[in-house]
Amino acid sequence: MTLSTVKNSLLLGLLAILLSGCASFGKGVAEAFLEKSNAEDTRVCQVKGKPFEGIAPSLAEPKGKTKVLMVHGVGDHLPGYATEFQEKLAKELKLTAKESNYKEIQLMSFSDPDQKLGNLRVTRLQNEDNSKDLWFYELAWSEITRDQKALLAFDNSGEYSFRRAEVNEMLKKFSNDTGPDPIIYFGKSRDLILRSFAQAVCWMSKDSWDQLPEEGRHGCDFSNSLNESFKDDEIFFVSHSLGSRITIDGITRMVSLLEQPEAKTTLRTINKMKREILQNKHVQIFMLSNQLPMLQVGRELPEVTGQKAEYCSVGSPKYNSRMFNETSIIAVSDPNDLLSYAIPHDFSTKYLDSRLCANVTNININIAKVFDAFGIGKIANPMEAHIGYPKDDRVIALIAKGIGNAHTAPLVKERCEWTETTD
After folding, report:
1. Which of 140, 105, 137 is nearest to 123 (CA)?
2. What is the pLDDT of residues 88-98, one digit of tens each?
3. Which residue in 191, 244, 227, 180 sits closest to 65, CA to CA?
4. N or C: which end of the chain has fewer CB within 10 A?
């Protein structure tokens, strides 16, 4: 009898006992298992790359506002999906006051006013004396893919679902909700989703709370944005799974359009002065459940690769054609998240547009607890490992206060290992 057979036999025997009338024995084993799973938290948190500041320092600046855009991944998301993350982030940053009402903008493109582009919810968070000001933008682009995914609605109906086992039915519903989104994104709807992203960024560039409409369908024109006050604003992106691909593609698309003044887009009206405002920005992108390597497979390369020195070094010949002064990509991945990947050391050179002036920091972190399944082997819940990032206190602390700096959160110092790397 092989070791595997022995383990399977032991498991089956244990399950039989737990499901039998031996309630007291089953209860004791279950309690012991729960005690073991709730023991000291030994989940890994390893950070490798350049130090990063997080959001907190921007809140201490006397000028400008701090602006954070959240971009969701696969699955249908309704407005308000990021509320828990927003509240945990606000607590970590000690932003205890907020506007009584948020702004709810139905996004619209001027080139096709009837086309639905999703929803942008904007919430303003402040501290007690209003000396710190954070605007949180939540982009929900699911409206673009919702009708197309309705094609699979029949599979969730009683006509088919009753034939499945309960757990399989739950997994099938999850698959029908999330599986089509990458396929749809790489089809004709990609341009619509990237337009949705561009509209969100345009609204981020508004310098007055009163410039944001309370509600209704509205389009944003870059020619009326990126004003002088925006140069003091700090912008951050937080994305999840497919949202990371959308964020990178969206920014890269903006770079390309800026290089094509004849393009039919509101970006064509950005003059040299306004572009310089963007080129002096240091942008931080926090990618939760990062999927850039997987979603690069089979795709075309960006227009400009392998030329970081030519675009990003002061005095280099193409320095005035960069998008940002620096783009810090912080890729957060749980190795037990089956859909998440670290970013390899040469990925940014080969597969990211050089004009982003990107550097990469990888965070290897156990979101889901790893436990011993009755001696059969270690296991972690892959679902929790994929969707639990916005709820994890260490992730929140890293986004809020970074690592390798004087204001790093005590939780991160205690629970995370950091290895600094250089370019």
Report:
1. 137
2. 999 999 998 87
3. 227
4. N
Tell me how far apart the 2 most distant CA atoms of the chain are, in Å: 79
Tokens describing residue 313: 């070094």
pLDDT of residue 261: 54
Q: How far is CA 11 from CA 33, 162, 380, in A?
A: 14, 29, 17
CA-closest candidate to residue 66, choices 134, 138, 136: 134
Share of the chain above pLDDT 70, in %: 87
Cα–Cα nearest to 280, from 231, 313, 317, 328: 231
Q: Which of 92-96, 221-225, 230-234 has the highest mean pLDDT?
A: 92-96
Which residue bears the tokens 């999703």? 118
End-to-end CA distance of the chain: 53
Angle in degrees, 0-180, between the axes of helices 242-258 and 190-204, rounded to the nearest 10: 80
pTM of the model as a whole = 0.86
Quickly count: other Cβ atoms within 10 Å of residue 379's Cβ.
14
Average pLDDT (6-32) is 45
pLDDT value of position 257: 79
Does residue 264 have a pLDDT over 90? no
Query: Does the structure show a pLDDT above 90 at 164?
Result: no
For tokens 């969730």, the residue is 156
- Phi-psi map region of 153: left, alpha, beta (phi>0 left; psi -120 to 50 alpha): alpha
- The answer to whether 121 and 68 have CB atoms below 8 angstroms apart is no
Distance CA 198, CA 196 (A): 5
Angle, CA of 93, 99 and 101, to the nearest 5° = 130
Residue 8 neighbours by CB under 8 Å, 6+ apart: 376
Q: 115-122: long-range contacts (C-beta < 8 A, 24 or more apart)?
A: 115/192, 116/143, 116/144, 117/141, 117/143, 117/144, 117/192, 117/195, 117/196, 117/199, 118/142, 118/143, 118/144, 118/196, 119/79, 119/143, 120/199, 120/200, 120/203, 121/79, 121/80, 122/203, 122/212
268 SS3 class: helix
Q: Give the C-alpha separation, 47 to 288, whole Å.
A: 14
Token pair listed for 252: 């890269």
Question: What does the pLDDT read at residue 29?
Answer: 44
Q: Is 166 exposed, middle or buried (0-12, 13-18, 19+ CB in 10 A)?
A: exposed
* DSSP code at position 343: P
DSSP E strands in 187-318: the ranges are 217-218, 234-240, 282-288
Instruction: Report yes or no: 68 and 124 within 8 Å, Cβ to Cβ.
Output: no
Helix intervals (H) in 121-266: 143-149, 158-161, 166-178, 180-185, 190-204, 242-258
